[in-house]
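Many introductory courses stop at the sequence. We go one step further.
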Amino acid sequence: MDLKNFIGGEWVDNNLQTMPIINPATGDQLGTIPLSTKTEIDAAVNAAKKAQKHWALVPAPKRADYLYEIGFKLKEKKEYLAQVLTREMGKVIEEARGEVQEGIDMALYMAGEGRRLFGETTPSELANKFAMSVRAPIGVVGLITPWNFPIAIATWKAFPALVAGNTFVWKPSNETPMMAYELAKIFEEVDLPKGVANIVFGTGPTIGTAMVEHPDIRVISFTGSTATGSKVAELGGKHLKKLSLEMGGKNAVIVMDDADLDLAVEGIVWSAFGTAGQRCTACSRVIVHSSVKKVLEDKLLTAMERITIGDGLDPHVKVGPVINRAALEKINHYVGIGNQEGATLLTGGRILTEAPLDRGFYFEPTVFTDVNADMIIAQEEIFGPVISIIEVANLDEAIAVNNSVRFGLSSSIFSRDVNTIFKAQQLLDTGIVYVNAGTTGAEIHLPFGGTKGTGNGHRDSGQAALDVYTEWKSIYVDYSGTLQRAQIDT
């Protein structure tokens, strides 16, 4: 499959250089994508800008009708799309189905917002005067999305932008472009007006930079690494862009002495090793009360013996590959650091090279224990199936350890004590807190995002996402027939 850019409602072939799309489970080539240039970004922005003038005048409930149709199409194609997703990204098929479902849910949820783009009315301080606020679209927005959730995160960004009256230019990840292609085909099938949605493939330094610098892109919504997000923030600030940044995480599961340990182990295994640890919400630290540490470790090791590793298209497989060889090497590098720092390797810690896994990019699920909270492996995002067990003496220490990293996306606590739970949810410095569940599983009608190095205060999902893609406009209607000078004549 040789993909083309989708610009102005057309599939555009500019005879550009290409790069391969690789199945991380098998190493097979699935197709190619074009390596676009600033010229393609300019064309996409021009198309989006022209379309936005008309799209903004379409009543919001009518814009929402397109999202309903997109949602129904996603539902019709759910199994096919899940298969495509697994082939290009590697996550196991049940997770791929769940991700497509997120896209369906987001389409239908944001379609509902077409009748709920509420503003406010408020009394004026002057007689014969009416005051209100409304949401207004911003214009052309730029979407930069990662490979680990190639359709879910894209829909978190694209659908609220569309229902609010914006058009967009989207740069998907080079690792997972096929889901963008499939979504563009759905846009065609529902007759989304040409130019409303535009997709340009290419590298971050070329395409991403061109988007951030383009004067007609008013908003940049980015999900990716903290290092890249910092560069986007710096460049975007220079160009006075509105920026929404969702970046890294170093998420922890806290296990207290009164926890249901079997449930905690289930939550840890799913959070740490689902998607091969390649979620921004993945559990990479387990903060455990000293009195239950040994029992928890034993139960965890027993549970991990049941983990099956392989091609995610096999329904019996629970952990698939990591995305590419660079990811393998990065994870392996951090395991080496953990050994050098003096942490105890309980299990795992190696690249899997036995056939048939040698054809893909597989890392063995890994557990370190006796980890100090200030070790590198307990502070930096590894983005792979590696967890560090940190022992604490009480809840206050557990909260302090949780909050000691520079990220603040997701946290979790297992306890049966209501006082412990309410204290923790108040003091844990993360944008998401789970109680008696792992660190993953966000629902699309709540805000998604975090504190500190995880983001810059904006949120994907939920009504909060509309704040990224709208401006507040205050409107005053004076029907007094005289000039009233606000506070002067009050």
